[in-house]
Amino acid sequence: MKKIARYVLSFFPKSFEESLRFLVHRVRDSFGLARAYRYDFDLYRRYSGIFRPSMQGVIEAKIIKAYHRVEKGLSLADPRPGFGKDAVQTVLDGVEQYVQRFGQNHTTHRALNTLKEYVRFNSANNADVAWVEARLQRLGNSIGSENAGGTRRVTRDEIAAAANIDLKDFFNSRYSIRQFTSQAVDDDLLTQAVQMAKKTPSVCNRESGCVFVVSDQEQKARLLSLQNGNRGFGDQADRVLVITSRLDAFLTVGERYQCWIDGGLFAMSLIYALHSLGLGSCCLNWSVEPEADQAMKQLPGIPKGHAIIMLLAVGHIPAELLVAQSPRRPLNEVLNFI
Ligand SMILES: Cc1cc2nc3c(=O)[nH]c(=O)nc-3n(C[C@H](O)[C@H](O)[C@H](O)COP(=O)(O)O)c2cc1C
Predict the structure, then answer these.
(1) pLDDT more than 70, % of the chain
(2) 144 has a pLDDT exceeding 70
(3) Which residue of 171, 180, 231, 285 sits with most ligand 1 atoms within 8 Å of its CB, as the best mutation to test the pocket?
(4) Is 117 helix (H, G, I), strand (E, B) or coil?
(5) Which of 166, 232, 259, 299 is buried most, with the most CB atoms less than 10 Å from its CB?
(6) What is the value of pTM for the model shown?
(7) Burial of 41 (0-12, 13-18, 19+ CB in 10 A)
(8) Is pLDDT of 196 > 90?
(9) How close is the Cα of 78 to the center of ligand 1, in Å?
(10) pLDDT band of 145, cuts 50, 70, 90
(11) What is the 281 CA–ligand 1 centroid distance (Å)?
(12) Which burial class, exposed, middle or buried, applies to 89 when counting CB atoms under 10 A from its CB (0-12, 13-18, 19+)?
């Protein structure tokens, strides 16, 4: 077939062949793009909260979204008494449904703690919250003892004291590391890093970011074979992390790209947390077509209902090594005062 095409093209000028090649690539890429969007569309439709309102994760995300609205309201300089009735209603409905179907958990505890503070604030400001109190009483056993949810009083001085670190050196000393020692990475270090990264902001505090740590050599090799940027160093990294964003944390059409934002922010925090613990890491892009994504989700432990944000090669840094300089654009190309 190729031979025939070449023979036919030999009757035309070279520029015609180039235009034809360009056109063929355009058509192929347009179909590829449409197919990839279709894949993302199916993933979001199947696993987000839009069409699966009764999934456990979706109910939980709804509760978090709603109680966080109440927390935010309470944290304003001058909250309006009686604010956010619809959010409160959503929290109560959600918690009732959740407790009945799945039992209580940290989310139901935090949600109800927040409502207790809402009641205190409104009672002090003569707003009618008897209806909230009555429902809270019925849910009394689900409130739990954890003192989380609602607001916390902080001072500027305490924030400044804790944040007074030289971030410039910290940022500038992080490089993508592509050489690792053979020393094993302790689970405890990874746990500490993830614990730190959990403080990353996320939309309505829904924390979609998750990490899957791959240590098994065979699984690691399979994983790395699906990724196209780790040749020459991926196999040296003691661990490969798969950073994902759970889609059941997202509830609306408007949130269809939120997984990439929240997952990306979470990934960045994790990279800096690992850096603070002396570990080296290198992001590994997950810029793949649907087949690779599907293959990844066949691996044990990688959930189908998560968007894969990136992989991260993690290991100990040799005493001396070369890193790519990766010089940055001039500041004036990035910073625009408009
Ligand atoms: C999302 C993302 C994907 C990346 N993918 C790869 C990759 O597949 N392979 C690789 O060697 N580096 C990868 N990198 C690392 C970049 O090349 C690197 O961050 C950039 O050159 C800046 O260098 P620095 O990290 O040393 O500051 C990736 C970085 C990001 C943020």
Answers:
(1) 98
(2) no
(3) 285
(4) helix
(5) 259
(6) 0.93
(7) exposed
(8) yes
(9) 45
(10) low
(11) 10
(12) middle
Residue nearest to atom 17 of ligand 1 (CA): 176
Which residues, other chains included, contact 238 with Cβ-Cβ below 8 Å and sequence gap of 6+?
180, 182, 183, 184, 185, 215, 314, 315, 316
**CA 157 from chain center: how many Å?**
31
**CA dihedral for 110, 111, 114, 120, sign (positive or negative):** negative
Choosing among 3.90.1150.10, 3.40.109.10, 3.30.420.10, 3.40.50.300, the CATH entry for 170-316 is: 3.40.109.10
**Amino acid in position 4:** I
Q: Determine the atom of ligand 1 nearest the C-alpha atom of 309.
A: 1
Scored b (16 or more CB within 10 A) or e, 209-248 reads: bbbbbbeeeeebeebbebbeebeebbebbbbbbbbbbbbb
Asked if 129 contacts 91 with a C-beta cutoff of 8 angstroms, the reply is: no
Residue 244 bridge partners (DSSP): 210, 308
Name the one residue in this structure whose structure tokens are 């689900």: 142
Are the CB atoms for 49 and 62 separated by under 8 Å? yes
Give 267 Cα–ligand 1 centroid separation in angstroms: 12
Place of tokens 């039992």: 103
Cα dist from 140 to 22, 109, 113, 118, 143, whole Å? 68, 10, 10, 15, 6
